[in-house]
Automatic annotation (TrEMBL):
Annotated membrane topology: Single-pass membrane protein
GO annotations of cellular component type: Golgi apparatus; membrane
Family, similarity comment: Belongs to the PC-esterase family. TBL subfamily.
Record protein name field: Trichome birefringence-like N-terminal domain-containing protein
One matching Pfam family: PC-Esterase
Entry's localization field: Membrane
Domain Trichome birefringence-like C-terminal: 186-418
Keyword vocabulary terms for this entry: Membrane, Signal-anchor, Transmembrane, Transmembrane helix
């Protein structure tokens, strides 16, 4: 590691959870989940509760490995038209930005040892209802803690919550969208969006790319690997869905902090794998100390992969900078990027293997004593080299890290649904 730098933290610090922007540990919610929309800046506390016997907290689903399988052509896809969805950010709207091919929209995930339930299929028995898998209480609250890669997952969930066929997901409802996405993806507020369903389900997006806190100190914005005060805002929910990793790799102007704090020591930089391990370990302790499994179900969404090939630059005996250069080398086509890819890789394994962060996630999850369900979407997503925006978004360059909507995140949500009801 580099030599530690002296730095003194301010008393009564405010936190910067998103790109170094200060906010309170609670953060303002956009809407009162049990009533009409509240003004931006109004802090309201959800009071959702779940019946203990409805929470399964298992690491496996009915003996089936949902995450080992293959992609198959499915003519019933896509599940919706992006032009009719008000929640999709421009960076994910590949069709809206002129992507000419549509075959990438027509694949569904087929596990080797079972079938996954259709998200829009009618539930014949009340006990099969995903609401039954969560609670019989008056209101169910779900927060997804996300970064930019998994924001598509959240937005996909919001649109599915709007569709009429979701009358089988919870009881028939009239949808109220209260200030939904009033804070855009570039907003400094961590509470990104809220959808309230009159009959009992509220979905929240909470943007916290590192899970641990970014704190304003006298030296600048500091990523504190040992602090997770933001977690105060996550308590009391029926279900929590976490993910992290993508932003740990960013350097220079695109990273969200100036320094890293590990205990009393302050560093200008650190091996990003080591930093991720320390930060995720702090999150694991938060789960053990703050989650009541009888009231809250916890999911961790696995690493969302890129289709760039990692190149490392070494600084003072540790790796700190990650460059993505050779791209198609990961799938044995070193001269290619994800641009122009129109179909998934065949089979169930990825030639380059798992990203290094997968091992960190596995290690940390195994150390947590409370039940956490891993949505192991990494390998099945690695096979989808065709599912990125590439040049079809509002961004510049070729994007081989985010995902088109409709697209791969539809499958992530189906697997979450399966984990709840199977």
């Amino acid at each position: 590691m580099e030599q530690a730098i002296d730095g003194t933290a301010h008393k009564d610090q405010t936190m910067a959870l998103v790109d170094g922007s200060p906010t309170s540990s609670m953060g303002p919610m956009l809407v009162d989940p049990l009533g009409p929309a509240a003004p931006i800046g109004t802090v309201v506390r959800p009071t959702f509760r779940t019946q203990p016997h409805r929470l399964k907290g298992r690491k496996q689903v009915s003996g089936c490995d949902l995450f080992r399988g293959r992609w198959v052509v499915d003519t019933s896809y896509p599940l919706y038209d992006s032009s009719g969805c008000p929640f999709i950010d421009a960076e994910f709207d590949c069709q809206g930005y002129g992507r000419p091919d549509t075959q990438y929209l027509k694949y569904s995930w087929q596990p080797d040892s079972c079938n996954i339930p259709r998200f829009f299929g009618k539930v014949e028995r009340e006990e099969d209802n995903v609401r039954g898998g969560l609670a019989e209480s008056e209101h169910v609250g779900i927060i997804s803690m996300h970064d930019s890669c998994c924001r598509a997952h959240c937005q996909d969930n919001f649109f599915k919550a709007e569709l009429r066929d979701l009358r089988y997901f919870v009881r028939p409802f009239k949808l109220h969208v209260n200030a939904c996405l009033a804070a855009s993806s570039s907003s400094e507020e961590p509470w990104m969006a809220t959808v309230t369903l009159d009959y009992g389900l509220t979905l929240y997006m909470y943007r916290t790319p590192y899970l641990v806190d970014i704190v304003r100190e006298n030296v600048g914005d500091v990523l504190n690997l040992n602090s997770i005060e933001a977690g105060n805002a996550w308590k009391g929910m029926d279900m929590l869905v976490f993910n992290s990793w993508h932003w740990w790799l960013h350097t220079g102007k695109s990273q969200g902090w100036d320094y890293i704090r590990d205990g009393p020591a302050l560093y200008k930089n650190m091996d990003r794998i080591e930093a991720f391990n320390k930060g995720l370990t702090t999150w694991g302790r938060w789960v053990d100390q703050n989650v009541d499994p009888s009231k809250t179900k916890v999911f961790f969404q696995g690493i969302s992969p890129t289709h760039y090939h990692m190149q490392y630059k070494k600084h003072n005996s540790f790796y700190s900078d990650y460059f993505y250069k050779t791209r198609g080398k990961d799938w044995n086509q070193p001269q290619k990027s994800c641009s122009g890819e129109a179909e998934p890789l065949s089979g169930s394994t990825y030639p380059a293997g798992a990203p290094p962060a997968v091992g960190v996630v596995s290690k940390v999850l195994s150390s947590i004593t409370k039940p956490v369900y891993l949505l192991d979407i990494t390998t099945l997503s690695q096979l989808r080299k065709d599912a990125h925006p590439s040049t079809y978004s509002d961004g510049s360059g070729t994007d081989c890290s985010h995902w088109c909507l409709p697209g791969l995140p539809d499958t992530w949500n189906q697997l979450l649904y399966a984990a709840l009801i199977m």
